[in-house]
Amino acid sequence: MEATVELEGRVALVTGGSRGIGAATARALAERGADVAIGYTASAGKAEEVVRDIEDTGRRAAAYQADQADPAQVAKLVARVVEDFGRLDVLVNNAGVITHEVLGEDGTGTGALERMYDVNLGGVVAAVRSAAPVLAQGGRIITIGSNLSARTGFPGMADYAATKAAVIGYSKGAARDLAPRGITVNVIRSGSVATDMNPEDGPSADAQRAANAMGRFGRPEEIAAGVVFLAGPSASFVTGAVLDIDGGYLA
């Protein structure tokens, strides 16, 4: 059976693409025919490993260092991708950070919370605003959100949930603005996924497994499959939508 290459000729940018969901997404998009650029903050070695894996499939790939909390760096990242690859068709906003702080208790301080807002919300807004003028007709914008934006379920998640809920509202508005150019804007509301940031043997792992209907952690590749669908031609009439891939956490 021949490989499906419905994204042949497309160029995708995946922020936070050096590991976890971002790395799985970058590889999955390449397997479907796309050339892929990834943004990363600190994991240069892991980023280059993803680039090599993509190049082994015969697709073009490159990694760019950029802090998603800095709108100027985000704008430069998008511009570099267009300059080096010649176009941009798919933007995947995957970069994110998480900070836990129970209200009324001594926490991590406002600095950590401000950075979370700057990356999780500000980084998405900056990327969308930078990409919107250069995205090709029929382009795709996909943001990795969180099921905690709809139901926190655990203490200490108020600020994180707020950043992810805000992204949904922003994406729905952007979907309206960009629809005349055939550009779709959607959010994947991810559940507990086994990554470096949230390992299956972490202190809250048992509680997370118990909270969803499937009783397990998801795999990065399962989230990436949703991105591939939303990035492809079959999802051309899907915009302003929220796709839950959370093992039934919200069931």
From TrEMBL:
Q: Which residues form the Ketoreductase domain?
A: 10-191
Q: By its UniProt entry, which Pfam families does this protein fall under?
A: adh_short_C2
What family does this chain come from, according to its entry?
Belongs to the short-chain dehydrogenases/reductases (SDR) family.
Q: What is this protein called?
A: SDR family oxidoreductase
| Species the sequence originates in | Actinomadura graeca
- Top-level taxonomy: Bacteria, Bacillati, Actinomycetota, Actinomycetes, Streptosporangiales
